[in-house]
Write a structure and sequence with these properties.
With 176 residues, the protein is of the alpha+beta class. 26% of the residues lie in helices and 35% in strands. The strands form three sheets. A five-stranded antiparallel beta sheet has the order 3-7-6-4-5, with no helix packed on it. Strands 1-9-10-11 form a four-stranded antiparallel beta sheet. A two-stranded antiparallel sheet has the order 2-8. The N and C termini lie far apart (56 Å). The relative contact order is 0.19.
Length: 176
């Protein structure tokens, strides 16, 4: 009888270990999926439009608007759709809008989501428009250059934020 109880306890322990291992593996896969652009992505520089510094003090986050957030409307576009935005490097070294489509292009692109359509323009977001600040951060209220890592599937994450005079934050940032 005692052997049966020991075997039953060992089976229960083994099941618990397997369940915990599966849960930890799932959590690890989610973290890897979120961090993949930071680990493997190509670094590009995007210029921002001037920043409203009043939001920084009040909200503890920096809301950035990039030049590639407003792009020409393409046919059949609707808010909520994913869109591939092809980028090309400008003579200034930053990356700019080249074209957009609903199918994955052959050239370099970033994946975005159409937020709104106004007239002949679409407002597209890429998941890199907000950055949460550390407490007591100093932030210049001017145009910033943001280094972004873009994975081969188009997902992107902020890597570094700079302004004339040096970096605002150090390399390898995590952003939401």
């Amino acid at each position: 009888m005692k052997e049966k109880n020991n075997t039953h306890c060992e089976n229960e322990r083994l099941r618990l270990i397997i369940i915990i291992a599966i849960l930890l593996s799932l959590a690890g896969m989610f973290l890897l999926f979120a961090a993949w652009p930071l680990l493997t992505g190509k670094i590009i520089v995007l210029e921002t439009k001037p920043i409203d510094s009043s939001n920084i003090i009040k909200d503890q986050y920096l809301k950035m608007e990039y030049n590639i957030n407003t792009i020409p409307k393409i046919s059949e576009a609707k808010p909520g759709q994913d869109i591939y935005v092809s980028l090309e490097k400008s003579s200034k070294g930053s990356w700019e809008y080249h074209s957009a489509s609903f199918s994955k292009p052959d050239d370099f692109f970033i994946l975005g989501k159409i937020i709104s359509i106004e007239g002949n323009n679409m407002h597209v977001e890429y998941g890199i428009e907000q950055f949460f600040l550390e407490e007591n951060s100093r932030m210049p209220s001017r145009t910033l250059k943001v280094e972004v890592r873009v994975a081969t599937d188009g997902r992107s994450r902020i890597y570094d934020i700079q302004y004339i005079g040096g970096p605002v934050y150090t390399k390898n940032l995590s952003s939401s």
